[in-house]
Structure prediction request, 342 residues.
Amino acid sequence: MLVSVTGATGFLGSHSVAAIARAGHSLRLLVRDESAVDRSLAPLGVDTSAIEVITGDVTDERRVAALVRGADAVLHAAAVYSFDSRQRRVMWRTNEIGTAVVLDAARRAGAGRIVHVSTVGAMLPAAAGTLRADTPVGTAREPYLASKAAAEEIARRHQREGAPVVITYPSALIGPHDPYLGDQNARLRNALRGLMPIWPAGGFPVGDVRDTASLHARLIDADILSGNRFFGPGTYLSTRDYVRTLREVTARALPAVFLPARAMTPVGRLTGALQRVWPWHIPAEYGAIYLCGCATGVAHGEPTGGVTARPVADSMRDTVRWLHERGLLADRQSGRIAKAVA
Prediction:
């Protein structure tokens, strides 16, 4: 089976490509930088010499048409995931316009299965208290969440029209082998570097990138699973439990203060405005504060494609070990894990 993939050199995209390759499928990738293919996929054991690569952007209709031509399945994983206010314009362009271009092209090409990677955040805030496959699209005004909600509307419209579109909702993903050190792994690293002594109360669903990649590989085969909306395997953690688990994994004290998300929101808005002119990244992001204040867990029994979430402590341990091996965390910052490696 030929599977075409966007976002293949990103964190979830690269792990999904590796899982699809292990399942024995052929791959065609759309990437903006061809040199990133080996850099992102080789550490995951993918033979990149057997992969067809098309250079281009997801908003380029001609290049996207070439990507999906003759494909049996399409995985649309390209997105800009960031709460950095400087990324507002590129998020809307990639997340909303790119989704419209890719899903339209995949339908015209006759792909038998089209998987759109959304996020649990696309359904926030959730009035019902827990997330379900039929939870309405969210109304958040935060730029990243709003752009993903707009993409969600596009994907659901295709579903209503009878297109073979499947939507997945990953949690906040951590795990090893992150080509660009994305938002969640960077947040975990910042916590261990002492840059996050203050946390908003509340919480968010946390998942392992390898588990959601396994879900995507299973979804490529249309005969295995029924349904058209699936949650990435994950576990809802309060911010207190997140820090507590990180303490247990590293055997470090990690002093932290937890304040009501509502009280921290003005600070987040202020740093968001400041970030537009400040050249260095500020960890206190409005989007992250908002997410902690309104995020909720997934209702029991909602579909995860038969993939069970691994323990969060295991995911954190593997992530910290990888960050340490890459030189992104010092021995002291990695705590017990650095000692175990030594």
